Amino acid sequence: xxxxxxxxxxxxxAEGVRFNLAAEGHDVRVAADGTVALQQLVEEDVGYDLxxxxxxxxxxxxxEVASRTRAAGNYVPILxxxxxxxxxxLVRGLExxxxxxxxxxxxxDELLARVRGLLRRSRWDxxxxxxxxxxxxxIGDATLHxxxxxxxxxxxxxxxxxxxxxxxxxxxxxxxxxVASRGELxxxxxxLRPDTNTRVVDSFIVRLRRYLEADASQPGHIVxxxxxxxxxxx
Length: 234
What we know:
Distance between the termini: 35 Å
Order of helices and strands: EHEHEHEHEHEEEEHHHEE
Strand order of the largest sheet: 2-1-3-4-5
Strand content: 15-25%
Mean pLDDT: 86
Low-confidence stretches: 127-133
Structural class: alpha/beta
Largest sheet: 5 strands, parallel
CATH superfamily of the largest domain: Response regulator
Radius of gyration: 18 Å
Shape: globular
CATH topology of the largest domain: Rossmann fold
CATH class of the largest domain: Alpha Beta
Number of helices: 8
Number of strands: 11
């Protein structure tokens, strides 16, 4: 059973989402404002598997909840669920540390699909910890610190990775040099349908190449495989 924190101030919507998630077998707690959410996520660190977060909240905004949760070192997956649908809001939400973004009104089946995808990533973390996987992995001259979400390059600079960036790297690492298709990555990392029409995978690949490659225009570590997808050459 997964523990989910639903941060939503509209009582009727919160109850509807809570009911449907509970029907899927999840233990759902509801916080009606950002202050209560921060108590759960930062002060007490209750140990949730997923946070579903509205942005327009009383007292403390969802943006600040996400930012302060990440600043406290809590990397629980965060799904923003909001009526704010401007591209700038989407970008800011991701930059503050959210893993996914769904706008209201939404379809229940899409919400449940996003939840399943984010929980898969969380379970991957648990399995990795149980099998005592290494906390640091070398990729060329760079060192990826799995426990700190950090990538340290040869020149000593340190890049703090978002949960999406780390999730994408882990999906590639997990294949041990095998190819991951865009559809597989969309489903595993973003919780989207494999046939979703988006360039988000390619955009994140570009970001990771800037961190890892000596020359991002001629990548040697995150390699495109024509017609198939991407693979990681460590």
